[in-house]
Amino acid sequence: MYCHQVLEICVFSSVFNMGQSSSKRNHNCKKTSRGIQQMHSSLETIQNEHDDNLTQLTYPIHVDNNLVPGWINKSQFLEILSDNVPEFSKIENFCIKPASTAGENYSSLILRISIDVKLTDKSIKSMSFMMKVPHESAKMQQMLKTVNFFTVENATYTELISKFEDLYKSIGMNIKFAPRAYKFTESLKKEPKLANTVLMHDLCQDGYRNVNRLECLDVEQSKLVLRKLAQYHAAGAHCRVINGPYPELFTQPMFGSNKERAVSILEGIMGPFKKMFLEHLYFYKDGEKYSEKFALLFSKMSRKFLKLSTFDPTEFNVINHGDCWINNLLFKFGSKGELIDIIFVDFQLPKYGHPSADLLNFIMTSVHIDHKLKYFDYFIKYYHDQLIEHLKLLEYEDRLPTLAELHMQLYKYGIWAITASVMVLPIVLLDQNEKTREYMSQLYTNERYKANIEQIMPWLDNRGLLEV
Hints:
Elements: H1 4-17, H2 22-30, H3 32-50, H4 78-84, E1 88-98, E2 108-119, E3 124-134, H5 138-146, H6 149-169, E4 181-182, H7 186-190, E5 198-201, E6 208-209, H8 219-243, H9 259-279, H10 291-308, E7 318-320, E8 329-333, E9 339-344, E10 351-353, H11 356-366, H12 369-372, H13 376-393, H14 403-412, H15 415-428, H16 439-445, H17 447-462
Antiparallel strand pairs: 1-2, 2-3, 3-5, 4-5, 6-8, 7-10, 8-9
């Protein structure tokens, strides 16, 4: 699955074009200049949101305090503090401000809420939360009726993550997959808008941070992510065995059961990316060599993507993170710079299915180009070893997936490698400081992406992933 920023932003236009006839959609597709302008606007929003994170960043953020919704106030947090802070007395100081840059088209606004809590012994305890809220535009409200990311993310934290972590606690392992999330109850009765929010512990307080996405990850960093991913997947698979099937929220098709409508939405999402990539193939070494293969593959991509998005009950399935890439990973380092732990954030697209979605998306977007292809099979073997180890630790009762099966299914689900390389990687590798008037043309022509895709294309071709 590619980054949810791509999905969320593009869904806006797709949802609002669904009422139009197919002939009008085809007519609009022919209007190249208009389509490119729309994509430019969407991609600029995507790039901005890629650089907004739930933790401190390595560069300054310029925020607009006027973005803070007026319906959020400190009284709503009294129940959160009363339930979670021993000896809570009262709120001494309350500060709320955006943790992301201004932008009308963002799918959500990230707020940092800093609170000084007075305890019964008169001491002060400082706390910090991160809160995701939707923008109140008509488009956003319409999108939430189609895909409510806030409902999904809250359910993931409260119904899945806590269970996964408890499974490991039961065997004496303290494994954290995500920041702790909090639920409003009494405050929700007075302010219904709180239902479409996600409130989390601010992991900055615990020393977690992002790493530079432009540099991607080295081998040891990648292995730590794959280990945590294997632990997460093992828990998801075992939880299914002991608790029964997952609710439809995590198994149903993202765009509903109407296949033609879903294909139309996917075309609205993928179309501009596919078009621009094909137009820029000549920039790359031997790019024209792959032109016909990409064109044919792209013509079938939406339907293939949709088909493979539905889980196969005969395969080994897990709860995929759904958006596993470098900016959704928070790293913790020791005093000597050693890597201690990673934690996942942003659970707006988890789906039950084969783990290849997370594996291909992570490796193709987040591992440095010097390692992602050279050590690809090694990474898969390392992940599989960790997966089997933790399935056994959890006393998983179903048949264990073999390494050979995993490799074969990675071929079956190879479309994830294509979408990651063509639609996500160019955004990941574009420096925010390069956002000039030529910003969009640099998406597929900047030297970082060029160096990556020139190695990735023959790798995809040699593995047969460009064949329809």
